[in-house]
Amino acid sequence: MKQLKEEIRKAHNQHKLLAPAMEIAMSTTITNTINTLSNKRITNLTTLTICPSSFSSLKLKNKNNSTFILCCSKPTSGEVNAKDENMAIDSNSHSRNESNEAYVASNEAFSCSNSAYSRGLVFALGQKKSWDDLEIGSPVVKRYLSDDEERWNMWYHGRSSTNSRIDSIGVAVSSNGVHWERGAGQAISRGDVGMVMSCGDDWWAFDTQSVRPSEIVIMSSSKVKADSSVYWLYYTGFSSEQIEFLDNSLDFSLENPERVNNNGGDYENGGNGKVFKSLPGLAMSQDGRHWARIEGEHHSGALLDVGSNGEWDSLFIASPQVVFHGNADLRMYYHSFDVEKGHFAVGIARSRDGMKWLKLGKILGGGSIGSFDEYGAVNARVVRKQRDGKYMMVYEGVDANGRKRVGIAVSPDGLKNWKRPQDGPVLEESRDGWDSEGIGSPCLVQINGDEEEWRLYYRGIGKEGRTGIGMAISKGDDLTSFKKWTGFHM
Question: What are phi and psi of 97, to 5 degrees?
């Protein structure tokens, strides 16, 4: 079957492509040369094939036949995520599409934002019949600064009660990282908010069932205007291929993707202990709304394949978070379930160009017996501290009963020697609040100032599987404890 898929995909791409596609070479000398793709299938999610050729400009067409250009040049250590705070902001970011009227996210269902019940909550489910009214999670939060304003973007996954079998990706915006503006439908124009990416429609692809965001890396250069920077979205794609998992030693159900609101159990893709194959994918965009899928070397279009039988990541690969370390040095952190060890684990892969990856192995497994992360770590997010260069990893720790809380690990180089600075978690679920059933999918944001501040965004689960996105704060250099947000204090 794999050979058949590969032959069909090659024939399909040869028919669609009139010019070589691309590979981004991270050279230290010049911006990459141009190759134009034309005669493409007109869609909001255009698929590109990676071939040996570098590029600096890529012409695509979106669903409405309007053309936009992707421009990119070599990233340098001062031009990627470490300097997101200094990126310029699109001057048209407030424009809206009439068919997808934006609205301010409301937490009314959880009472006021500073009550004991809703402490920490900053983003609840979407309004009824919106694309994200059943489930939300996987927050990827970025802060951007320009000379005259501060702006926050949050990409996240959502699921609708009208189509509960699939996850899609959407974007919300904010001026302070607390009060968010969102859209009920699909984002069409450059400044829209709402759903921005859904599942792939090629039958052989790895992401035909669900997509969830894992990281946004922004490439920029002094040689290119700020509004020509390119967003690189690393995401998890789920297919309909179900994995047979027969280990009965766990006291909880192993699921992939994890479903926290079964909607009465009338959906097939997920829930009830089902494990579906997932792989890491890449998409690019000029505006963070219109995404072009970049096909990797795997026959399904993914960047990496699962490991061989007996390897620790042979079941699935999920949550591919990418960190820029230096010129021609990117690291991908991802998780899987180690069947032999019987626990979740985080592994690392390395790349020179962000597309071709080499696995380096497992770097963080299960904690000590009886600990909050005895059964391993999932959904890891790594940040390199700007002041001392150390790497901080926040992750979702899984205990023997499947309960999940947020933990932290530290490494001097981001490759190995990851150490847990404490035995307990840095953030736990509330006793009887909106996130009383579990927390996870952490996203760590570093804010430099007179006093260093860290914001930890996370997915919370409440009664009956109701989800929301919360925020906790840590001041100074001590990241061993976070306090859930209760409001701005004057």
Answer: -95, 130
Q: Check whether the bond before 75 is cis (ω within 30° of 0).
A: no
- The two most distant CA atoms of the chain are separated, in Å, by 64
Please state the length of the chain. Answer: 490
Half-sphere exposure of residue 199, counting CA atoms within 13 Å on the CB side?
21
Strand partners of residue 49: 295
DSSP of 226-239, one letter per residue?
GGG-EEEEEEEEEE
Is pTM beyond 0.85 here? Answer: no
Question: In this structure, how many other beta carbons lie within 10 angstroms of the beta carbon of residue 374?
Answer: 16
Distance CA 172, CA 138 (A): 13
CA 151 – CA 485 distance, rounded (Å): 19
Contact 65, 42 (CB under 8 A): yes
| DSSP annotation of 9 | H
Between the CA of residue 487 and those of 149, 200, 363, what are the distances in Å?
21, 40, 37
Q: What is the dihedral of CA 242, 243, 244, 249, to 10 degrees?
A: -130
Distances (CA, A) of 197 to 91, 389, 422: 23, 34, 38
What residues contact residue 20 under an 8 Å CB cut-off, 6+ apart? 35, 51, 52, 53
Question: How many Å apart are CA 254 and CA 440, to the nearest integer?
Answer: 16
pLDDT digit string (tens) for 65-103? Answer: 333 333 332 233 333 443 444 333 333 333 444 456 666
Of the candidates 396, 407, 472, the one whose C-alpha atom is nearest the C-alpha of residue 438 is 396
List of E strands, 317-452: 318-326, 329-338, 343-351, 358-364, 377-384, 391-398, 404-411, 438-447
Q: What is the pLDDT of residues 13-58, one digit of tens each?
A: 443 332 233 333 333 322 332 232 223 222 233 333 333 333 333 3
Of 220, 63, 74, the closest CA to residue 142 belongs to 220
CB 209 within 8 A of CB 199: yes
Q: Cβ atoms within 10 A of the Cβ of 273, count?
A: 11
* C-alpha–C-alpha distance, residues 361 and 215, integer Å: 20
> Is residue 19 within 8 Å of residue 37, measured between CB atoms?
yes
